[in-house]
Specification:
This protein is an alpha/beta fold. 31% of the residues lie in helices and 24% in strands. The protein has a six-stranded parallel sheet with strand order 1-4-3-2-5-6, sandwiched between helices. A six-stranded antiparallel barrel has the order 7-8-11-10-9-12. Strand 2, helix 1 and strand 3 form a beta-alpha-beta unit. The longest helix is centred in the last third of the chain and has 19 residues. The radius of gyration is 22 Å and the shape is elongated. The chain starts with a strand and ends with a helix.
């Protein structure tokens, strides 16, 4: 899969796809339905399958001081899209020019002239252009004039009638409902980040941990999780992790602190993918290191038990 980071000055090889258009944060099952519409069009037209997204996320552009909210990084998006048969990911720069475009300009300048698309698939609630003035119906009208087809994926609900959406994933993560989050995403929620140096307190009690800054990821419920981590070399390890500010030490910035079972090695500077499989408990304070170590042992046992069924 190729990644193209602009809509201007593209070669013929990077134009002419059938594309799914949207933010696609999480690439959840609702997003996958939109991509399936684009895939059907690509197969019918005999053209590449593309996904059009934005970097940074438009919400970050318009609300630069908003709390962290992302469900995945751009690299994770590309990784999630590859198994769906996507040939090219257009990560378009969301800058002042893009933010100021009306819906008609976006359709003409970006989709038709810049990307030269043959078809666009969008979700039923898709909006685009300055002030979110554009709708799927408007895009159909523009497509008829500009020479590309449009298909619209309808709303998908879960068994309880709740919409599958990025917002629903965030709500589930805030509620520590990892089962529901994974059901919407189609996979466990994962945090990808570089292992950084911490205070190394864990080593003093025989629990060496890998510390990962949360960056712009949304903050799931603070507490202790059963995890599964993948190393850059492809190996995976089960483990247990604390996510939050560790009340006992009053961290200024929340951190993911992971203990990988049966791993012995140096992870500093390496990038890990840490899946949050199950929430075990909320954050606590402890009366000394002995009480903390005893609780970590209980957490580890609970994590091993939870991971045997996942």
């Amino acid at each position: 899969m190729r990644i193209v980071r602009d809509w201007r000055g593209l070669s013929d090889a990077d134009r002419g796809a059938a594309v799914a258009v949207g933010a696609f944060d999480g690439v959840h099952r609702g997003h996958q339905a939109v991509i399936a519409k684009a895939r059907a069009a690509a197969e019918r037209l005999g053209v590449p399958l593309g996904v059009v997204s934005f970097d940074p996320h438009p919400r970050r552009w318009f609300q630069p001081d908003a709390a962290p909210f992302r469900l995945m990084t751009a690299d994770q998006m590309a990784q999630a899209l590859a198994p769906l048969g996507v040939d090219v990911l257009y990560l378009l720069p969301f800058d002042g020019e893009m933010a100021g475009m009306g819906d008609a300009d976006f359709a003409q300048r970006v989709l038709a002239q810049g990307l030269g698309i043959r078809h666009a698939a969008v979700g039923f609630d898709f909006t685009f252009g300055k002030g979110r003035s554009g709708s799927p119906e408007a895009l159909r009208t523009y497509g008829e004039r500009l020479g590309f087809g449009v298909s619209v994926a309808q709303r998908i609900d879960d068994a309880d009638g709740l919409k599958l959406s990025s917002s629903a994933v965030r709500e589930a993560l805030k509620a520590a409902d990892m089962t529901r989050a994974a059901a919407i995403l189609g996979r466990p929620f994962a945090i990808r980040g570089e292992v950084i140096h911490g205070d190394k307190r864990g080593r003093t009690i025989g629990v060496p941990t890998a510390n990962i800054d949360l960056g712009d990821y949304m903050r799931p419920a603070y507490g202790v999780y059963a995890i599964r981590a993948q190393l850059p070399d492809g190996r995976t390890f089960d483990g247990v992790a604390s996510l939050g500010v560790r009340p006992m030490y009053a961290l200024q910035t929340p951190l993911l602190e992971a203990w990988l079972f049966d791993f012995d090695g140096d992870l500093y500077g390496q990038t890990l993918d840490v899946q949050l499989i199950a929430w075990l408990r909320g954050e606590q304070t402890f009366d000394g290191l002995d009480a903390l170590k005893a609780q970590i042992d209980r957490d580890a046992a609970a994590a091993r038990a939870a991971l045997t069924t996942s």
